[in-house]
Amino acid sequence: MSSPPSPSFFKATMAIVYKDLAAELRSRELLSAMLVFSMLVILIFNFALELDIKVRQSVTAGVLWTTFAFAGTLGLNRSMAVEKDRGCMDGLLLAPVDRSAIFFGKAISNLAFMLIVEAIVLPLYALLYNEARIFQPSFLGVILLGSIGYIAVGTLLSAMSVQTRTRDVLLPILLFPVAVPVLLASVKASGGLLNGATFAEILTPLNLLIVYDVIFIAVAFMVFDFVVEE
Amino acid sequence: MIETKKLVKRFGLKTILRGVDFSVQPGEFVALLGPNGAGKTTFLRILASLSRPSLGSVKVAGYSLPHESAQVRAKLGVVSHMPLLYPDLTAEENLQFYARMYGITNHQSRITEVLQMVGLEPRRKDLVRTFSRGMQQRLAIGRAVIHDPEVMLFDEPYTGLDQDASEMLDDVLRSVAAKGRTVVMTSHDLARAEDLATRFDILSRGVIAASATQNELQSTNLLAFYKQSLAAKN
After folding, report:
1. ipTM above 0.85, yes or no
2. What average pLDDT does this structure show over A176-195?
3. Is some CB atom of chain A closer than 8 A to the CB atom of B78?
4. pTM, full prediction
5. Domain residues of chain A, as ranges?
6. Closest residue of B to A84, CA-based?
7. Contacting residues for B100 by C-beta, under 8 A, at least 6 apart
8. Is the CB of B70 less than 8 angstroms away from the CB of A97?
9. Which domains, and CATH codes, for chain B?
């Protein structure tokens, strides 16, 4: 018996990304929630801490990563809930493709949403905190590496938590402990860059970020099929 | 075309299916009937490779589950009471997405063909969230047949439909079955099942309690057969 045709892994992944971006472009539910939340957090920190310029500069990395982590969790929850609530996750699982393509599709679109939010939040932060150094390419590179790791593990865990009744509460409870290494490394590396550390001085957190990204992408690739199956 | 042997499904300590032996020949339209909680949906989810059997063997379209699940999914179309559609995409975009997920080349002509079959060609550019429940269910059937599957599984497809929408769905189901596809449908609507199916299997307490073809039922009606089967099992 000849095997029936099936899509390539790459095409299936990109179909999910395209679908998510097109749906979000229409509804703007996920992005607007993430953006409003991020802006509020930045504003609250700005007023609550009442810091002088010098101290503000020293807390930049922490404030930014706290904001990104909380906004990212909002987006991760919503992105998987859209699939689950209307049964669309079953539609994805019925496609004749390796199920890890679903993980990569969802992870890439989640990463795109997070990067869009970061691209809007960073200029706002620079304006409010008078901090222009966050636009240096190496700092943006650390933001990208940290976001990849956070989204990789977050997408995997949101696929688990979305199947429970307490998914809104469960995702942060599961995600934050597992994401501690990536958040710590991101804060260390980005904080170091802002304080004028050399590349050699931030090499350890940078290596940790890269290793974390590789490990969690590999783990998700291997276990996603078992996570989504009954 | 479909064969299960001694199929068992457990969720924790609860056993839902208790050794189901079930077989469907190519081109048959089987109505799987039974009370709530009998295990119909669980059984269909296993056939669709959405759930893993605890014990027993499952073959669909010549492929074994769960080891050859991607090959099975390529030959399978599934319609449930949930439409599995994205409300913020148009009818055409939804079908485009699923066509890509099934690796269909030249999908534009296939999408037009499917939309004509389910009577939604004039609404192809409209967002699915503006569709009535009946229109969504017709589009769900279009989604399920986009890759021209050999086997169709329908899980309570009439749930939430009004009379007009149900009649329209009857026509679509008949046209799906008329193409020689193998169909398994679960339903609580015995009159519709009697009208559409060529065989009736009663699932009760996790096993097939009785089975009869349309010809075998000619002397009695489906409701009487259904009640007798459940009474004998209880």
Report:
1. yes
2. 92
3. yes
4. 0.90
5. 9-228
6. B84
7. A7, A11, A12, A15, A18, B107
8. yes
9. 2-233 (3.40.50.300)
